[in-house]
Write a structure and sequence with these properties.
Bound molecules: retinal
Structural class: mainly alpha
CATH class: Mainly Alpha
Order of helices and strands: EHHEEHHHHHH
Largest sheet: 3 strands, mixed
CATH superfamily: Rhodopsin 7-helix transmembrane proteins
Shape: elongated
Helix content: 55-70%
Strand content: 5-15%
Length: about 280
């Protein structure tokens, strides 16, 4: 009996891997990260120096604002040295008319250290603005909660997969949370500032308006860079660098210098802040 012959293929089918497009940081981006790190350190030192010129009772805005730039400096040090970054892998489908669809893999770096920074610093920036306006505790808490939701859902969006509702769903949730933040500051904050004094009201209007414009640029940059990848990783780093310098050191110096000239912005913190607990 003859053994059943099975056809042995003369050549195995070859699997062609999808082409990979790497979107990684370059020299320009690295340099920018280091420059912003240095600027944040200088700003932190300057804010600390400003705080030493006033008694402890008057240092609340100084402490909050210095913590903001210190946090940013740490985050920028991480990013400049290659920490706090992951690679997001996306498969892009190309629909072809007469041949089978083809795919490209995009490997893009996402600096998640930013989101750690923003989770800590945007609540502190909101606290600065809320205290300035004289917002009540309930509204401050809700504004900060909405802000943290905005940043964390933004982080999920950055790593979400495409072709499903996931990525842009997270982005939408983040934008709704951002509207809640704006509502608290623009409506409640403005009304409270008005009740304090005309000087406080006009300063709040100016610095909160500045904040609104700068903050609104973040989701726009995100959409162009992380969302649709129409901006290189270096371009994204530079765009966020400009915004971060405006939102933190420039905002901070403006707040601290103006605060010094408007006594109504002072806040009575009670004995604990200046003297600690216990005793008479
Ligand atoms: C994301 C993406 C998701 C949608 C929205 C966003 C908003 C981010 C904002 C960031 C502000 C950062 C600041 C940093 C300080 O230097 C997370 C980009 C709405 C408003 C002020």
């Amino acid at each position: 009996p003859t053994a059943t012959q099975t056809a042995v293929p003369t050549s195995l089918p070859t699997v062609v891997p999808n082409p990979i497009e790497h979107q990684f940081v370059g020299d320009e981006g690295k340099k920018t990260l280091w420059v912003v790190f240095v600027l944040m350190v200088i700003a932190s030192a300057a804010f600390a120096a400003l705080s030493w010129r006033v008694p402890v009772q008057r240092r609340l805005y100084h402490v909050i604002t210095t913590l903001i730039t210190i946090t940013a400096a740490i985050s920028y040090f991480a990013m400049a040295t290659g920490h706090g970054v992951s690679v997001n892998k996306i498969t892009i489908r190309h629909q072809n008319d007469h041949t089978p669809d083809t795919f490209t893999e995009v490997h893009r770096q996402v600096f998640w250290a930013r989101y750690v920074d923003w989770t800590l610093t945007t609540p502190l920036l909101l606290l600065d603005l809320s205290l300035l306006a004289g917002l009540n505790g309930a509204h401050i808490l809700m504004a900060i909660a909405a802000d943290v939701i905005m940043i964390l859902t933004g982080l999920f969006a950055a790593f979400g997969s495409e072709g499903t509702p996931q990525k842009w769903g997270w982005y939408t949730i983040a934008c709704i949370a951002y509207l809640v933040v704006i509502w608290h500051l623009a409506v409640n904050g403005r009304a409270q500032a008005q009740a304090k004094s005309q000087k406080v009201a006009s300063f709040f209007l100016a610095i909160a308006g500045f904040t609104l414009v700068i903050w609104t640029a973040y989701p726009i940059v995100w959409g162009i860079a992380d969302g649709s990848r129409n901006l290189s990783v270096d371009g994204e780093i530079i765009a966020y660098a400009v915004l971060d310098v405006l939102a933190k050191p420039i905002f901070g110096i403006w707040l601290l210098l103006t605060h010094a000239n408007i006594p109504e912005t002072n806040i009575d913190l009670g004995g604990f802040w200046a003297h600690g607990l216990g005793g008479e």
